[in-house]
């Protein structure tokens, strides 16, 4: 039975450049929250997407020599783009909206017209200051030292005929909303909004532009496009079917339970957004949470400075779960935090390799060593010595829940890690290796291991919103045990004769010095593409001729279970008997796209076993390195070449 509906959103990202680890922060946090709510039994709708209009995109597309649509398509859908990044980071969004989607564009036109018709949007003349990179208009009084108060860059004079939204009309109601309800959190952001924006006098907002065309056209006044923030903010509702029939869910999911947003865009979400909803008589979201920023050396995040901030590289080197965990474990969500590769490595080593990893591997290894696959049925009852651990584990879920409800991810994780540390200490106190020596102590030993396995189960269950893949692996090692929400406050759910499955270290320890040096190297600017140095040693012609290269046709291609590298090929090599070859290129191709292709194989290598399967030969690939990552391309030749043709 569902506990109810829960709607959570991230800001929709500007696809103006590749995303860095700072962008990943909010999406990972939203994902953890969404997974936590699902774990509790809610019917969750988690929305993310991309905010694709505006002058910045138009300019970038011009620079790149393509249309704005081509430009955004490439950054959103292309290799290593926004969708790929969320897939890599194991983001469980239920919906993805692009503001260039037809249904959204049409909905924005209707929304704009509604506010025009109700008198809250009117035509006037705009003179003011415009910050191009931020796509923000400012009044003279809002500038800081004559510059954009958000990014500190130069602003330009701007004057144009434009539509305005009567924001001033809603100033009192918005102030009341901010000051007298929990609409905006953390509380510190309320003071900032009221003191910096509302009290100095909220002016009407310019909501159309004529100076560029990459936006939603105002359909009743040619030449005007809708201000990108109106277009963007309403995504939260159009994605649920507001003013369109393409989507649905408005009744179930609106008002949103929470919008997670970065601190610099709180102003749009806590002032402009509620005012527009008030204008349309629509329910307001229940909460806006303005999280802090990840900083680099106290400043804005960018490439360089000896730190790698590319989420692809970090995930590849440290693992997706470790990266997700680090982001939410190391910084309080409501405040800024200083990102560094050093902090990332030390967090992984301390919490994941030492504390969690060790607890899981020691516990499972001891259970296996002393009792084989299952614990014995005969176990001692808990004694005084066990009480502290059991008590801590039993109360953990409530403490964790209290923190998660406040979006205090760091504190929720601290609660789990207090228990993990206590469990590691419990191993040392009980010294299972000593108990194991005397058969008479085996019922006690079994109880100690049972308590540890049960502790691991509950901790892993509570970690699942943060590290979904790791939790799944731990569940396997505990014999496929349940980790549903109700079971996470019940000590004793694991069957007495708990089964265990051994496995490799979950988080191998990282050599800090070596890794930092490697990252330093990676962060050095270099050309994107690197090729292997040429071999200097010469090969005589006869030796070369011994290699039998053949054209082969792909009859079938399948992924290899438990391997994220290998693909298994069934090939027609012209002999009439299928040839099987395994090739480590799974990262670069989808198996189905290779079927029917003509490839090149070297066929007279001795057969080799890989993941228990025989590989008879090797497919030839071209290899290069791009931004420090190795890339392989299978050598594909003209399909007119028959299977088995010798290459010489
Ligand atoms: N398109 C707008 C949002 C519209 S929502 C209706 C936008 N896009 S953005 O791509 O510039 O930023 C997306 C989110 O990433 C923002 O919440 C922003 O605060 C966040 N971050 C960007 N850099 C960040 C860090 N270094 N640290 C944490 N979050 C940061 O704004």
Count of individual domains: 4
Span between termini: 67 Å
For this structure, what is the CATH class of the largest domain?
Alpha Beta
Write down the Rg.
29 Å
Structural category: alpha/beta
How is this structure best described in words?
The protein has 648 residues and is an alpha/beta fold. It folds into four domains: 5-104 and 232-313, HUPs (Rossmann fold), CATH 3.40.50; 117-229, Methionyl-trna Synthetase, domain 2, CATH 2.170.220; 354-488, Isoleucyl-tRNA Synthetase, Domain 1 (Orthogonal Bundle); 541-634, OB fold (Dihydrolipoamide Acetyltransferase, E2P), CATH 2.40.50.140. It is 41% helix and 18% strand. The strands form seven sheets. A six-stranded parallel sheet has the order 3-2-1-11-12-7, with helices on both faces. Strands 16, 17, 18, 19, 22 and 25 form a six-stranded antiparallel sheet that branches. It has a four-stranded antiparallel sheet with strand order 5-4-6-8, with helices on one face. Helix 12 crosses helix 13 and helix 14 (341-371) packs parallel to helix 16. The longest helix has 31 residues, at 341-371. The termini are far apart. Residues 11-14, 22-23, 25-26, 51, 232-233, 235, 261-262, 264-265, 293-294, 301 line the site of 5'-O-[(L-methionyl)-sulphamoyl]adenosine (MSP).
Which short descriptors sum up this protein?
Isoleucyl-tRNA Synthetase, Domain 1; 6-stranded antiparallel sheet; binds 5'-O-[(L-methionyl)-sulphamoyl]adenosine; 648 residues; globular; alpha/beta; Rossmann fold; 18% strand
Write the layout of secondary structure elements.
Blueprint: E1 5-9, H1 21-40, E2 43-50, H2 55-64, H3 68-77, H4 82-88, E3 95-98, H5 102-117, E4 121-131, E5 136-138, E6 156-165, H6 171-180, E7 184-185, H7 187-198, E8 205-206, E9 208-209, E10 225-226, H8 228-233, H9 235-238, H10 250-253, E11 258-262, H11 266-279, E12 288-291, E13 294-296, H12 311-318, H13 320-330, E14 337-339, H14 341-371, H15 384-405, H16 409-430, H17 432-435, H18 442-463, H19 468-477, H20 512-523, E15 529-530, H21 541-545, E16 549-559, E17 567-572, E18 578-583, H22 591-594, E19 598-602, E20 608-610, E21 613-615, E22 618-619, E23 621-626, E24 629-634, E25 646-647
Helix pairs in contact: 2-3, 6-7, 6-11, 7-11, 12-13, 13-14, 14-16, 14-18, 14-20, 15-16, 15-18, 16-18, 18-19
The structure holds 5'-O-[(L-methionyl)-sulphamoyl]adenosine.
